[in-house]
Design a protein that fits this description.
With about 400 residues, the chain is α+β, with helices and mostly antiparallel strands. About 65% of the residues lie in helices and about 10% in strands. The protein contains twelve helices and five strands. The chain has helices spanning about 1-5, 10-30, 35-55, 60-80, 90-110, 110-125, 135-205, 215-245, 260-270, 280, 290-310, 355-365; strands at about 275, 315-320, 330-335, 370-375, 380-385. Strands 1-2-3-5-4 form a five-stranded mixed β-sheet. A hairpin with a 6-residue loop joins β2 (about 315-320) and β3. α3 runs antiparallel to α4. The radius of gyration is 35 Å and the shape is elongated.
């Protein structure tokens, strides 16, 4: 409660302080309605305690409620024995605070605890009409009508809090999945290149082939470059996680030219990758979500080829407008590895994280992903994505 108060702006804090001061003044003014000075002081103290219990933090709520309701009930019982009692009000601010304590108990606690915490305020509200000399029936009627309403209000607020908590959990779960996908996409591609290059070096050494210093230096340079890229991706990811709620997937781009660099980089350490890019797509400015998803599909597919399709001699990457449709594009990555199996290409049965995360990413923007062996041998990953609102790029 205190931390939430401090988190508000100065204007809001000043407003709440003014409201609290006004309520305390009203409590004191109502106490002046009593015929005796001790009763006036007791009424003011009882009202302030009820207001304080209403604003108490969760860890002190039970103690504050017990103290406030005990003071209120004691004062009501004592005033009921007096010959001269207030004629106008029993303490309406105190009554409102007590009723709100019932609402708070129902809102914050499960049914069993809510009954215990609300029992004291209910008894205090029921005894408040005894403080009046007249009009007891009218105030008692107000209490009888208000109590069920406050309980219903507490239930409604509890349902609202529950829905908000579930919504926050869903958002956090979506963010965790997004973070996992981004981490996999950013790092797996570079780490796979390191592993492939290291395996090549070990294989060469195992067969007794002596590498020239130039070949060895080139191989180590490729490993160093892939490691530096992996570290850069990790550093960028950690920076995004520290400063933003959801890390940026990639810098927004409006074209697919980055795919050429991706396929050329893959061809250095793997089988040659040929890119076919539909000219109609180069003339359109795609949404950042679509462009990023295309890049992720190609990147993840090439990573799986490097990891699992060891017998592949050629990889073909095609990004084209879907035949017979002007508002959807196809991203296809195929290899000619005849020894590939579903378990060897990114766990297509759903037990792996690469294709699972890729399918989630594609479906999130309204697309569809399929992956499986081809009839003539090899493996194919096909993603159909919406083009969205297209615009002709101006030169």
């Amino acid at each position: 409660m205190v931390s939430a108060f401090r988190a508000r702006s100065r204007t809001q804090r000043a407003f709440f302080c003014l409201v609290g001061a006004a309520l305390v003044v009203l409590v004191v003014l109502e106490g002046l309605n009593a015929p005796y000075l001790p009763v006036t002081a007791a009424t003011a103290v009882s009202g302030v305690l009820c207001l304080a219990a209403l604003a108490a933090p969760e860890r002190l709520l039970a103690r504050q409620v017990a103290l406030a309701t005990a003071a209120s009930c004691s004062l009501s019982v004592v005033e009921a024995q007096l010959h001269h009692r207030p004629e106008n009000t029993p303490g309406m601010v105190e009554l409102c605070a007590v009723l709100l304590l019932v609402t708070r108990a129902v809102r914050r606690y499960p049914a069993s605890k809510a009954v215990v915490y609300a029992a004291g305020p209910v008894i205090a509200a029921a005894l408040l009409p005894l403080r009046l000399a007249d009009q007891q029936f009218l105030v008692a009627l107000v209490v009888v009508v208000a109590l069920p309403f406050m309980v219903v209000l507490g239930v409604c607020l509890w349902l609202y809090d529950t829905l908000r908590a579930r919504e926050r959990e869903a958002i956090q779960q979506a963010q965790r999945l997004e973070h996992a996908r981004e981490l996999h996409d950013f790092v797996a591609h570079h780490v796979t290149a390191i592993v492939a290059q290291t395996k090549a070096a070990r294989f060469t050494a195992a067969v007794g082939h002596i590498q020239s210093p130039e070949d060895l230096d080139r191989m180590l340079a490729e490993i160093e470059r892939a490691g530096s890229q992996a570290m850069g991706s990790m550093r960028s990811m950690v920076s995004d996680l520290r400063h933003t709620a959801v890390p940026a997937a990639m810098p927004p781009t409006g074209d697919l030219s980055m795919l050429r660099d991706l396929t050329q980089e893959f061809s250095v350490l793997g089988p040659p990758a040929a890119l076919t890019l539909d000219p109609r797509l180069t003339e359109r400015r795609l949404s950042p979500e679509t462009t990023t998803t295309v890049h992720r599909v190609v990147q993840e597919s090439l990573t799986n080829v490097r990891k699992h399709a060891t017998g592949a001699d050629r990889v073909e990457v095609r990004v084209t407008v879907q035949p017979g449709s002007r508002d959807r594009l196809e991203v296809s990555v195929t290899d000619d590895d005849r020894g590939g199996t579903p378990a060897a290409h990114g766990k297509a049965d759903g037990s792996g994280y690469g294709l699972v995360g890729l399918a989630e990413r594609v479906e999130a923007i309204g697309g569809q992903l399929t992956a499986g062996p081809q009839s003539g041998g090899g493996w194919r990953v096909l993603a159909v994505l919406p083009l969205g609102a297209a615009s002709t790029s101006s030169s």
